[in-house]
Amino acid sequence: MEREAWHAIEIESVLESLGTSRRGLSEEEARRRLEEYGPNELREEKRVTPFQIFIGQFKSILVIILILSAIVSAYISMRKGEAYTDTYVIFAIVVMNAVLGFVQEYRAEQAVEALKRMVAPHVLVLRDGREESIESKNLVPGDIILLEAGSRVPADARLLEAVNLRVDEAALTGESTPVAKRLDVLSPEVGVADRSNMVFMGTIITGGRAVAVVTTTGMRTEFGKIAGMVQAVEVEEPPLKQKMERMGRQLGLISVILTIFVFIVGVVVHEAELETMCMMAGSLAVSATPEGLPAGLTITLALGVTRMARQKAIVRKLASVETLGSTTVICSDKTGTLTKNEMTVSRILSRGRVINVTGAGYTPEGEFLLEGDRLDPKDDGDLELLLRIGALCNDAHLHESNGSWTIFGDPTEGALVAAAAKAGMQSDDLKARYPRVGEFPFESARKRMSTIHATPDGGKVAYVKGAPEIILERCVGIYEGGAVRPLTEEDRERVLSAMRGMARDALRVLAMAYRELPSTLEEFEMDEVESGLTFVGLVGMIDPPREEVPPAIKLCKQAGIRSVMVTGDHRLTAVAIARQIGMLEETPRSVLTGDDLSRMSDDDLDEVIEEVRVFARVSPEHKMRIAQSLKRNGHIVAMTGDGVNDAPALKAADIGVAMGIKGTDVTKEAADMILEDDNFATIVRAVRGGRHIYDNITKYIRLMLAANFDEFMEITIVTLLGLPLPFLPIHVLWV
């Protein structure tokens, strides 16, 4: 029953393989399978309890020496009948640092808990043909589940029935718009993001309703695999903690050796009292231990965290501040971090003419320029038709608030609405004149979308937009100068050549087409509507780089930090943006794709990764390999991410950076730092701040060690000469 390609077989074969039917499982069979497969829960294989985290704070060599000093001090106070002031002060320092460390580490262990919160608590199932609500943890493979708008999918399942079903899979795949689902059998090679006949645990039904059969539960689901990857990542101690441990061991060894030596000299040579020498040993141990160092470091780091928060970088773990200062490579996503995440129509191909569009973002202000001269779309029928198709074959809406324009819906569709608005063509007016009477939503497998509209003269027309190569295959005519003529092979090649030129300039390209339909047609068949089309033109859109990114990358180069783009976007788009922002260095291995990575062994990747500046079409698994390879090469790596599937890579990096605006709770829990503005320049500012804090910490450590060395040598010399102790442990603590 453990089968991966449930999306690639017929529905009846799925039911047969799962040993179930459309009536659902019997109660008895469901109980048996629950025992066989276990509960539908995300398990934590190596759960660290709060108690273990707290006890772990006392394993530091520095802390152990302080505790031993406190014990010795308590013993002496007891013998003398004095107050336990020394002991209380030492223990207060130890406990304060333990509490601070516990709070930081406990918060860092919540990534899997965040995943658990994304699992639906209850679900409607069919058992013995009857509907009943059960706890989702009791779901088993073969259960028939009922889903409707607002439901959170409780397990991975194959669709049996779907009516206008749309699912928000952003948490799992990073896809920003709801995905239209269908029942068609798909190719076995289709990736998770394109499995349109499946629904996945943790995703949300945004529209329609469905009946589905559960295929996998618990840790075998896609969410479960991510949880397993998060748990499998071995998190290394921050560089600061490693250095402090190393220094602690060295100080501890020196302290023990000299203390024993001085103790023996005092007792044997000077015949000092045992109690006096115990006091001396306690003073030596405390003087050798920079007891103020943990508290000083905590205060320094906490002040750094506060400063960074004012610059929109929220640091979740204090030790990460110092790690930030040691960063040598920043691996950044493209969309929304290096770019604005505001698609803008910048170029149009209409009637063989290249028309440039000015303006940026979703603000409906700009001009249409043909060879530098202003063009009014209302006086140009070809351009007016193209903009009308883009605005009507569209589900996005522009919204203005306090002079700022935002988009509700897909950013690409928002760019088309904004382009039409620049021509004075308001979306609401167009929809009133051309009411929608039918539609075939966009699907990744089809790479196109169609809407059917009633026209003002009583007719019907289908407007189609999509990938140029797909649309051209379905076109038989081309619209030019207000008339339609047959589409020739020469026309096709000319359009495809223009498309490739746009793609090289980092533009996302869509083709626009239409088909006039009989006014009496009431039932619409997809293949009929989307064939025999008339090609109208191409629209090129760009997500422009943030203005502050090129200076930030230049600053990184000056500071010896490598900037690397890691994106799921196409190679051409990624390379074009990298060139625009000054990230790309032209070498034979400056760009690698996900396919390249899949063919490489870890050793091969380690050899070439120093040259790479752009990784395109990569998966979350690839991101984790990239982070691990850079770390094997000795780098301190900062990695950005926003979707649930990025959580393993963020945890594998030295500094995981989550997006505050578009990031999920899971990535934020797995991250060391959260960007409030999703901006690459904020990472660079945080790294610079981390370097300043690192310098301050270095100066503070030198000061503490110098003071403690003076105290240690003074006590040692005085004791060797047989003179009275100049300091008691409590005095040393207050110096």
For the termini, the CA-CA separation is 70 Å
CATH topology of the largest domain: Calcium-transporting ATPase, cytoplasmic domain N
Low-confidence stretches: none
Radius of gyration (Å) = 33 Å
Helical amount: 40-55%
**What fraction of the residues are assigned to beta strands by DSSP?**
15-25%
- Determine the number of helices (DSSP H or I, runs of at least 4 residues): 27
Give the number of domains: 4
CATH class of the largest domain: Alpha Beta
CATH 2nd-level architecture of the largest domain: 3-Layer(aba) Sandwich
Q: Give me the secondary-structure category.
A: alpha+beta
What's the topology here?
Blueprint: H1 11-17, H2 27-37, H3 50-56, H4 61-80, H5 85-108, H6 111-117, E1 122-127, E2 130-135, E3 144-148, E4 156-168, H7 170-173, E5 179-180, E6 198-199, E7 204-216, H8 222-232, H9 239-269, H10 274-288, H11 292-310, E8 313-315, H12 319-325, E9 329-332, E10 344-350, E11 353-357, E12 368-370, E13 373-375, H13 381-392, E14 397-401, E15 404-408, H14 411-422, H15 427-433, E16 436-443, E17 448-454, E18 460-466, H16 468-473, E19 475-480, E20 483-486, H17 489-504, E21 508-517, H18 526-529, E22 533-542, H19 549-558, E23 562-566, H20 571-581, E24 591-593, H21 594-599, H22 602-608, E25 614-616, H23 620-632, E26 637-641, H24 647-652, E27 655-659, H25 665-670, E28 673-675, H26 680-720, H27 729-734
Parallel strand pairs: 9-23, 9-26, 19-22, 23-25, 24-25, 26-27, 27-28
Antiparallel strand pairs: 1-2, 1-3, 3-7, 4-5, 4-6, 4-7, 8-28, 10-11, 10-22, 11-12, 12-13, 14-15, 16-17, 17-18, 18-21, 19-20, 21-22
